[in-house]
Write a structure and sequence with these properties.
The chain is of the alpha/beta class. The chain folds into two domains: about 5-20 and about 85-195, Rossmann fold; about 20-80. The protein is built from ten helices and seven strands.
């Protein structure tokens, strides 16, 4: 276990909050007259934040002939995509903050999701929030990691990234960040606590 880091950066979806992209797609499929395909293109555009999220969802309605109002599609995009928070992870973040670590978030997200998640997850312990739609960059683009490094004013080796996606961890590690992988939508909190040498 490495302990020479002072900065801990968490991913959001799958690590602190459940996310179910397929559940969202399934909830819309029966309303679409055309097959829902190449949805990563729409997701990336929403996450980059260069366009208003609602306009991209409206384009989805038009492109796939979805028999839903924009308001109802936005609701499905929130309620069916975002699950529950991981209470034990929320508690862990708070405990690490009390122990003196600098806590940050680095997430591929969008205004619709993040505004909703703010209502169920406590971000008060976080010193920095690095959100893709505000930075107009998406993981695993190395530029988003470099932006965080520069903004923190830290050396890469002082930063530990906790993420559930291998390509994100590999990109971060290539810049010198320390990394810890967790299972998507199933973070092993006991394992993470042991990593930090915290009592269970």
């Amino acid at each position: 276990m490495k302990t020479n880091y002072n900065f801990i950066t968490f991913d959001l979806g799958g690590v602190l909050i459940e996310v179910f992209p397929q559940k969202f797609i399934d909830s819309v499929t029966s309303f679409a007259l055309k097959p829902l395909k190449d949805l990563d293109h729409y997701a990336d555009r929403i996450g980059l934040g260069n366009e208003k999220s609602e306009l991209i969802l409206q384009q989805m309605i038009n492109d796939f002939k979805i028999n839903l109002s924009l308001e109802k599609l936005v609701d499905k995009f929130k309620i069916n995509y975002i699950g529950k928070k991981f209470d034990l992870m929320e508690n862990l973040v708070d405990e690490l903050k009390r122990r003196g670590y600098h806590i940050s978030l680095l997430s591929n997200t969008n205004p619709i999701h993040f505004d909703y998640i703010r209502t169920i997850f406590n971000f008060d312990p976080f010193d920095k929030l690095y959100l893709s739609y505000e930075l107009h960059l998406l993981k695993p683009d190395k530029r988003i990691f470099q932006y965080m490094i520069d903004d923190l004013g830290a050396s890469p080796g002082e930063i530990l990234l906790i993420d559930d996606t291998v390509v994100n961890l590999e990109a971060a590690a290539s810049l010198g960040l320390q990394t810890l992988q967790v299972r998507p939508n199933d973070p092993d909190v006991d394992r993470i606590r042991n990593f930090f040498n915290l009592k269970n």
